[in-house]
Amino acid sequence: MRKKRAAVLALAAAAILSGCSGKTAAEATTSASGETAKTEAAKTDNGKPGDAVTISLVESLTSPERTAVLRGIADKYEAEHPNIKIDIVSPPLENADAKITQMLMNGSGVDIVEVRDSTITQFVTNEWIADLQKYLDGWSEKDTLTDSAKEVIHYMKDGAYMVPYGFYQRGLYYRADWFKEKGLKQPETWQDIYDSGVAVTDPANSRFGYSFRGGSSGYQYADTIYWSWIGTDKLADPNAGYYLKDGNGATIFTLPEVKEALHFYKDLFKNASPTDSIAWGFSEMVQGFVGGTTSMLIQDPEVIATCSADLQDDQWDLVPFPKGPSGQAVFPNGFAGWGMTSFTEHPDEAADFLLYLSNSENNTYFAKNYSTIPIHSNAADKDSYFSEARFAMYMDMAKEPDVYRHAAYPQMYEAFATYKTEVDTMYQKYLTDEITDEDLLKWLNEFWTKAYQDEGQKW
What we know:
Blueprint: H1 6-15, H2 37-40, E1 53-58, H3 64-80, E2 84-89, H4 96-106, E3 112-116, H5 120-125, H6 133-137, H7 147-153, E4 163-168, E5 171-174, H8 176-182, H9 190-200, H10 219-230, H11 256-272, H12 282-290, E6 296-299, H13 303-310, E7 317-319, E8 329-331, E9 334-340, H14 347-358, H15 360-370, H16 379-382, H17 392-398, E10 404-406, H18 415-431, H19 437-455
Parallel strand pairs: 1-2, 1-3, 8-10
Antiparallel strand pairs: 3-9, 4-9, 5-6, 5-7
Helix pairs in contact: 1-3, 3-15, 9-11, 10-11, 18-19
């Protein structure tokens, strides 16, 4: 999907050599010996000044275009720090997480690692990444971090194990031209999506209402429907969205509203989505939308660039996430960022570059070119891209925090690793009528009840 943006990003990466600035951790953080981290960066283990230090950063969500953006920031940093070399390691996307896990298990050769919402618990539990709190305390740019960024930095309650580079918040893309043909209004609720989707669906002409995700991570879309039906007030914690507030490990899967939401989820697939979307992942659902098969798509801001490249401006629009019967629109605040390994031989230098990547200037640039929501509150002041055109929709949602809410599956449980390998198959069995709604809800309830019994309350 990102290939179409290669030329633009390559130019942007070059432009950063003259466009990025800002204080680094080295300018704000003092080492235990009283020397600044910047001074420490010019030393090796034997303390001799002038010897080069190499910092290795390993990516997870790799693409040539994104690596070029990172490389541009790294080149600028190297120019400002002649004794530091930044080595960016970019495993193929398909096996990047496995490669990273192997490198972390080996305990050497990695200084900075990409940390995602789906991997942070594993990395912290295994003590592979370090607490960054002492570096953040002395960071001059911490005061402009958004509330979302601060929340994610302390996602694990006992420390600050990563600094996000951006957020993947979802919105509703729809084909404005198709809606105009049918005389349909902009969708605002899940019911609007269903009604409009059915109205647009015309299998004989290969037109369908909705880009359903039934393949990898499809369960996440069912979750957003559940949460929009019941609202976040009933949840034990936004980061433990399968558990009820009134407690002792009781799950949402026992609620009648969730059963109703599950039926809606199935109807949306059966009556408004392509049959083969039972196996669709990210690429297929996006291609279904921009390729003229589906009229609506729920996805992250990175799809803005794809729609801009493949569709005419008046053919599509991006509007807020749909509301459910609760009156709320609830979706994950997906995140990824950078962590420092616990075994790095150069912690001061690694932390310095990590916070350089994360300063307002560099993060705003990165977020624009990688299509994520930035972590600094002054991003829109630095670049009008974040307050204009399609992206402005995300700023509009942020102005109504009582309506547009965040929740997440309980990734802090070790059981989540097993859950991810089984849950999509269970939903597919339900959608193809191999099991009933009672079967699926019973499985979900028993899985997470046992996780609570085995691991206790982890939020």
